[in-house]
Write a structure and sequence with these properties.
alpha+beta, glycerate kinase, domain 1
């Protein structure tokens, strides 16, 4: 979800988006999810990452591992569904 959201928020300031599993893991990875902001797209560009390529392969974990935007909490012992949050500051409007 964060990788698709990154297409929409790239170039916009004062926006933060989080998508994560409350149990602390997402599928078979060690990450709960990812947290992205206006700098996430820039980091991907510097690294030469093609967002559309990762989206087409459903490989957001590797994309965000390379950008450093993974959210890693470890198992939380709870599972109350996924958490999705969008924070928009004054400049993000």
């Amino acid at each position: 979800m964060c990788l698709a959201a990154l297409r929409e928020i790239r170039g916009k300031k004062d926006i933060l988006f989080l998508s994560a599993g409350s149990d602390g893991i997402d599928g078979n990875s060690e990450a709960a999810g990812a947290v992205i902001d206006c700098e996430s797209h820039g980091k991907a560009c510097i690294l030469g990452l093609n967002m559309e390529d990762y989206l087409s392969r459903n490989d957001s974990h590797e994309f965000f591992r390379q950008t450093g935007d993974l959210l890693i909490t470890g198992p939380t012992g709870t599972n109350v569904m996924d958490i999705t949050m969008l924070l928009i500051g004054k400049e993000g409007l």
